[in-house]
Design brief:
- There is one protein chain.
- By secondary structure, this protein is mainly α.
Amino acid sequence: MPFIEAEDDAVLANKLVNLTDRQDEERPAATDIASALWRQENIVGSILAREPGLPSRIDDRSFNPWDYLTDEEKLDETFVSNATLADTVEEIEAIRRQSAREKADRETIAKGGALSFAIGLPIAVADPINLIPIGGA
């Protein structure tokens, strides 16, 4: 009695088949990966790429942002927490644009594979937050 009864049950065979399918996907360019990593993994890049018009504090307590969110947005905890500070529909639109850009950046980084790691390492090391000394003595 074999350990694997059918060829379809072979994990290695399935992985090899999936690898050939994944090679057909279009990989993002190195500049696209670097731009996405700069916006997502470096504090300076994320500040510079910040969408104009994002809410900073609650100014108008009579505005209810919940009324302007779609059903999909209401299920996204991160989006809801960002939208709670919105005072106008324009601020909600700015949050939508920022959220869409961040999702696209994460997708680009994920599609980049090992190239994302190779490009991301120097970008992450160049983050000024790494210059803050930690520890004592």
